[in-house]
Model the fold of this input.
Amino acid sequence: MSDCISYDAPEPVFLQPWHAQAFALTVHLNEQGRFSWAQWVERFSATLKHHGLDRDLDGGDDYFTAWLATLEAILSEAGSANPQEVELVRRDWEEAYLSTPHGEPVHLAGTRAADTTC
Done:
């Protein structure tokens, strides 16, 4: 028998890194005053209902796809994220990750959207 205390690492809170990034970005924009948390909750709830996601969610891709759609809509309405530029950047990322060897970091070689910071 060992005198060492057993420690099991907690399960990750987010299933994918992009889930954590989308969450952190949303919290940051809220803290910067871009929208109130009450506004966020109202909009996100409407998006979930629209997507038919009224069942219990596990925080997976369906949940965070709805999360991202809500954030994009709020930023678009505020004039901060042009939907056409968002789509161009999304395509650039898709092209980059599809052409990146497994296990390697994904880099954008260049973007079609003007002045994009990644």
About this structure: The CA atoms of residues 96 and 108 lie 6 Å apart. Confidence is low (pLDDT under 50) at residues 111-118.
